[in-house]
Amino acid sequence: MLHKCIVKITDGGDGRCVGEFTVETEHLNRKGSLHGGLTAAILDNITTYALMSKGSHPGVSTSLNVSYLAAAMPGDIVEVDANTVRAGRKLAYIECVLRRKSDGAVIATGGQTKFVDMHQDAKN
User: Fold this and answer.
1) Torsion, Cα of 86, 5, 62, 67 (10° steps)
2) Where does the Thioesterase domain start and stop, copy by copy (predicted)?
3) What is the pTM of this model?
4) CA dihedral 116, 69, 40, 83 (to 10 degrees)
5) Please, what are the domains in the chain?
6) Where would I find the beta strands (DSSP E) of the chain?
7) How far apart are CA 68 and CA 10, in angstroms?
8) pLDDT, tens digit, for every residue of 107-117?
9) For all residues of the chain together, what is the average pLDDT?
């Protein structure tokens, strides 16, 4: 069964994207906290939106990393803040932090490197 997670975009532009979502029952792992796979998927999407807000092609991921630091439980509102560190001609580097809104505790950090040179000459 496919579940949805709605991240509401609250701010952004010029290489940044900020959003938030509420942890729901369908977002949980077997231990009852926010599932790590969903956390990674959200990080992947929000960092891509941050990159696109800089006018860059969304590219393809060459590296995605997540460090899990604290649990988010049902009902918690999680803030997601992504920032484009550098967007070059071929590669872009984006970082991200997920925080529990109620106390600012960092739930996860991470980022990704994306290949963005998608306009290669067709002869290559």
Assistant:
1) 80
2) 32-105
3) 0.91
4) -30
5) 8-115 (3.10.129.10)
6) 8-13, 16-22, 60-68, 77-87, 91-100, 106-115
7) 23
8) 999 999 999 99
9) 93
Quick one: 109 exposed, middle or buried, by C-beta within 10 A (0-12, 13-18, 19+)?
middle
Closest residue by Cα to residue 25 from 52, 43, 4 = 4
Task: Give the pLDDT of residue 122.
Answer: 44
The CB density around residue 112, as the number of other CB atoms within 10 Å, is 23
How far apart CA 118 and CA 29 sit, in angstroms, is 36
Evaluate if residue 1 carries a pLDDT over 50: no
Residue 119 pLDDT: 73
Nearest Cα residue to 78 out of 53, 50, 97, 52: 97
